[in-house]
């Protein structure tokens, strides 16, 4: 579904990603851990083709197609969907209008209405401009609803558990667990709370712009929780030596 080969990415004159390799198979859910400023969100921006993130070396292959030079809208049309950590406010566009337009069919729109109900998104929010005056939990739930309405083949979730209270986290986690069945997904997370509801098949650790570790999600997560990310760096240096 997604294959990233030796990816080096610059923003301005700063190299943010340094030789990233990552492969996600069809129907697989992967988790990507890492401390703040490790390059996780930069990887997301590079995968979706944000024009400020310039690939200087390496490839991004999506569904067997080299999309390294393709614009964002082409990648989205191919079946890529992203839940951003901090989505913007969009004045002049009502949430309900957007979700209806990006639903693939009338049948999908009916399914999305049920999805909105399960995510506890009331009709009042649908009549408001996107993220304008929304609470943190409302922003996150509505962002997830937008992406799931598109029914993408690969879903990237950038910190879906960031800034969400316990009640909203359970609501979001249970819905994602159901909606992502059979789909491919990459879950970017710092503290891993969302993994109470989603069970990834493989985990990776990013540190200083590189993926330094791959393996069993539970083993990696438990070690991070007990010893922190500095242990991951020490482990990587020892293996390299």
Descriptive overview:
- This protein is globular.
- It has 241 residues and is of the alpha/beta class.
- The two termini are 33 Å apart.
- Helix 3 packs parallel to helix 6 and helix 6 runs parallel beside helix 7.
- The longest helix has 15 residues.
Topology diagram in text:
Layout: E1 2-11, E2 14-24, E3 29-33, H1 40-48, E4 54-62, E5 65-66, H2 72-77, E6 80-83, E7 90-94, H3 95-102, H4 106-118, H5 123-126, E8 129-130, H6 136-150, E9 154-158, H7 166-179, E10 184-189, E11 202-207, E12 210-215, H8 217-227, H9 229-240
Parallel strand pairs: 3-10, 3-11, 6-9, 9-10
Antiparallel strand pairs: 1-2, 1-4, 4-5, 7-8, 11-12
Any descriptors?
241 residues, alpha/beta, Rossmann fold, six-stranded mixed sheet, four-stranded antiparallel sheet, 9 helices, 38% helix, globular
